[in-house]
Amino acid sequence: MLIVQKFGGTSVGTLERIEAVANRVIETKNSDADVVVVVSAMSGVTNQLVEYSEYFSKHPDGVATDMLLSSGEQVTTALLTIALNAKGYACVGMTGAMAGIITDDIHTKARIERIETARLKAELKAGKIVVVAGFQGIDEKGNITTLGRGGSDLSAVALAGALDADLCEIFTDVDGVYTTDPRIEKKAKKLEKISYDEMLELASAGAKVLQNRSVELAKKLNVKLITRSSFNHNEGTLIAKEDDNMEAVLVSGIALDKNQARVTLRGVVDKPGIAAEIFTALAHENINVDMIIQNVGHDGTTNLGFTVPQNELELAKETMQKLSAAKHIEFDDAIVKVSVIGVGMKSHSGVACLAFETLAKEGINIQMISTSEIKISMIVDQKYGELAVRVLHDAYKLDK
Ligand code: ADP
Ligand code: ASP
Ligand code: MG
Predict the structure, then answer these.
(1) Which of 174, 185, 340 to mutate to test the pocket of ligand 1 (most atoms within 8 A of CB)?
(2) How high is the mean pLDDT of the chain?
């Protein structure tokens, strides 16, 4: 039996908590399982390092930035290793590079290409607990890379997949996946089980309890994934393949994404190829465009709006200004995205109407809408974000 256990920032936030993590890992090891542990940096550390990296330049060098950002996870990996050794357990700590996590070279949001598992397997075979620094890897040139914010979840799932682990447990500061962020809505309910697809939509819509790419990979590699609390032994939430019971539930969760900004291009020449030009330029800068709306054109011009992550707005601004494809460009980062998610939507109608009516009743204006088979997302003014989450949670009776 092989278990991958990942501990997030709050769970390793102090030396006392690292000791508690060591005890939890030992419990698992003593249950006769091999254990690979993945750790995040202490909570707040990565934010601090990001701030440092931007002190001297708006566009700091990628290699240097990743060298800096990855350091937080090295600290906790080393400390947990020392703690486990001190408790008499043979343990080896590894950076992403030492663990053979090979990525592409897109710094600060690298993708894992493969994991060379020989050394990991040898250490496990020798009976050791292996602790791996999350959120990082190494590219073909030998440069350290990082996997994007929240990326330790991805490290854990990728390791579980590569090592064919029986289980991947994500330990965090809440008991599992809830119907919405329990910090926003106290009445949120913990879900016993959720499908990979719903979890992927929730995560992509801003529910940071799991990083979206980690869910995508778990689905692809069929990794058995559980989120649970590192502070108690309550049962967590299982993320698994969709089953018949799941489709009976209309809506399973509401998510809020505060990391959104909108770009509006006014007076865009309405001709074939213009959208390609705009979005190719953004893709070239590795900017993640989310929602897009284009108005019906008139007088040979049209308006085009799209959203990007807030921390990519600066770069999006510069990219759009260079392109000069529009007469006027507007930017707004005082917006949020609220999403309603549920596999039951596939087979029911009227789900979206209830969301629109509910927000209308509160006087909340919807600025943009996008839908998928199992999701409705709406852009609203930032100041109404949490209110929107609560009224939607009520409207879909998620507390029942
Ligand atoms: P970690 O540092 O352990 O990776 P994160 O802060 O990344 O933890 O994710 C856990 C947080 O996700 C919780 O504290 C909670 O506020 C937030 N969250 C957002 N949406 C949800 C949800 N639907 N269910 C549970 N937690 C959620
Ligand atoms: N420490 C990194 C972050 O804060 C990775 C993680 O916690 O998953 O984004
Ligand atoms: Mg996280």
Answers:
(1) 174
(2) 95
- Nearest atom within ligand 1 for CA of residue 176: 25
- Tokens 């292996």 found at: 130
* Residue 113, token pair as written in the block: 């290409």
Q: What does the chain come to in residues?
A: 400
- Name the nearest CA neighbour of 329 among 347, 350, 305: 305
Q: Which residue in the block uniquely carries the two structure tokens 């929602």?
A: 291
- Tokens read off for 118: 């020989």
Cα(174) to centroid of ligand 1, in Å? 7
Q: What are the beta bridge partners of residue 146?
A: 136
The total of other beta-carbon atoms located within 10 Å of residue 268's CB is: 22
Per-residue pLDDT of 323-361, as tens digits, reads 878 889 999 999 999 999 998 888 888 889 999 999 999
Indicate which residue's Cα is closest to atom 27 of ligand 1.
181
Instruction: Look at residue 251 and tell me whether its pLDDT is greater than 80.
Output: yes
In whole angstroms, give the CA distance from residue 198 to residue 205. Answer: 10
CA–centroid distance, 363 to ligand 3, in Å, is: 33
Residue 59 has pLDDT above 90, yes or no: no
Tell me the CA end-to-end span of the chain in Å, nearest whole number.
Answer: 38
Residues 306 and 292 sit within 8 Å (Cβ to Cβ): yes
Atom of ligand 1 nearest to the CA of 171: 3
Strands 225-229 and 237-240: antiparallel
The answer to whether the CB of 41 is under 6 A from ligand 2 is: yes
For a mutational test of ligand 2's pocket, the pick from 6, 12, 46, i.e. the residue with the most ligand atoms closer than 8 A to its C-beta, is: 46
Say how far apart CA 208 and CA 73 lie, in whole Å.
Answer: 18
Kindly give the number of the ligand 1 atom that is closest to the alpha carbon of 178: 24
pLDDT at 147 over 90: yes
